[in-house]
Amino acid sequence: MTVRRAVPDDAAAIATVHEAAVSGERGRGDYGDEQLEAWAQAQTTERLRVRLGPRLFLIAEDARGPVGYAQLDIATGVLRSVYVVPRCQRRGVGASLADDVLEAARQAGLPRLELDSSLNAVKFYEALGFEALGTVAHRLPGGAFMTCVHMTQTLKGGA
Description:
This protein has helices spanning about 10-25, 35-40, 45-50, 95-105, 120-125; strands at about 1-5, 55-60, 65-75, 80-85, 110-120, 130-140, 145-155. The chain is of the alpha+beta class. α1 (about 10-25) runs antiparallel to α2 (about 35-40) and α1 crosses α3.
């Protein structure tokens, strides 16, 4: 597996990874079908092309193609997302992406990162050193809401 900085031509692949990862959450019980559908469709190719300019996107690939991505908004100090397709989850792909994002944040001089975690990913982020601060209602495109956990991490070596 390799991790590289995403380019605008990766927008469609990132959208596909996002949809596959969210669709893999069906049946786990954290969110209803309406929420999952809105969440799965939240990252369109068009939206991603716009965000690929000002944000850092990393994409993970294996021999079969893209398997994960991470999105960091350096300007606001927010880790927007880490997603991995179901067939590659729990194999270190997400941790590798997150480690690279954390390093990029440190290099940018950020003192801390914040994020809103889906309920199923809280333990993943806690294992990376993030601390839960409380629940928030995250609004999805189309108006649906999903409960998330607001988390933060102070970065060692940050400004």
